[in-house]
């Protein structure tokens, strides 16, 4: 599969839902957004069928994202079925980590290529403000649980941190770096793409 410029497409991102349990200031307006009706999004059966077609077309890696994937009921079961059915496919997941403790055990045993966790600050007050009400500790607990269970040679755990001027560009980069080093996980700094003036 190639794009209009002749580049081979081997990596595809699939959003399983537009819904999220956070209201991050750089992601959506305070009042939220109008969700796509459930009957208008792909079913798990349709996504599974699509994954099979993509594999036949030469795709080697698929990342499942949202919104927040775990706001959609049945996500773990879908991941278990997909990883078992396509063992040669690299399957990755991006999550905000809010429910990671609950799902850490099945995630650790299904052989994902990577789990990326969004984490922009280690300051609980800043985290609460940036997400408009979310609590930091469950995310940190989830990371601890997952790192204690996962096989590092099979599944890489990564943190995605969006750097925002005036919010976490002081000493937070150093704190996040130190945190990632101590946990033995990869830290990736993501460029802030301003969508509005909330941050």
Mind sketching the topology for me?
Blueprint: E1 11-15, H1 44-56, E2 61-65, H2 75-85, E3 90-95, H3 100-109, E4 114-118, H4 124-130, H5 137-149, E5 156-163, H6 172-183, E6 186-191
Parallel strand pairs: 1-2, 2-3, 3-4, 4-5, 5-6
Helix pairs in contact: 3-5
Describe the structure.
The structure is a single chain. A 6-stranded parallel β-sheet has the order 1-2-3-4-5-6, covered by helices on one side. The protein has one domain (11-191): Alpha-Beta Barrel (TIM Barrel). The mean pLDDT is 92. The radius of gyration is 17 Å and the shape is globular. With 199 residues, it is an alpha/beta fold. Helix 3 runs parallel beside helix 5. The longest helix has 13 residues, at 44-56. It is built from 6 helices and 6 strands, in the order E-H-E-H-E-H-E-H-H-E-H-E.
Essential attributes:
single chain, 199 residues, alpha/beta, TIM Barrel, 6 helices, 6 strands, 18% strand
- The name of the CATH topology is TIM Barrel
**Averaged pLDDT, please?**
92
Please name the fourth-level CATH homologous superfamily.
Aldolase class I
In the CATH classification, which architecture applies? Alpha-Beta Barrel
Number of helices: 6
CATH structural class: Alpha Beta
Helix content: 25-40%
Order of strands side by side in the largest beta sheet? 1-2-3-4-5-6
Global shape? globular
Which regions have little confidence, pLDDT < 50, spanning 5+ residues? none
Radius of gyration: 17 Å
Structural class, from helix and strand content? alpha/beta
Total count of domains: 1
